[in-house]
Amino acid sequence: MNQHTDLRIHLKLQPEAAAKLIEFQDELHSRLQAAFSDWLVDDPDNLRIVTCHPVIDDEIQITWHIDDVHEVRSDLTDDQAWTVLQDIKRHHDAGIGINWHVIENAAERLYGESPDA
């Protein structure tokens, strides 16, 4: 089993800085990739900026990770699991939300039935 370490950084920025950061997101990704290229597992593309958006103090966010996708579809690669999450985000239905069935259905739509089925 390959092991790796996830580095997660949470920055709480002033509103004017956050707005500039959103515009700066591609350059930020390039700079982080250059800074950490020697440390990234296998491939410099293993760096993702997961979220970069203004947060209102009276809101919540629920986070789903590729590990959650692997819970229902262990046959998928990390990249495929990430694609499942991105598909769920694009087709999000607020009346249903995101749950294990939504993840399973998206994975099946994208990659067919699980070999374990």
Automatic annotation (TrEMBL):
Organism of derivation:
Fuerstiella marisgermanici
Domain of life (superkingdom)? Bacteria
Q: What is this protein called?
A: Uncharacterized protein
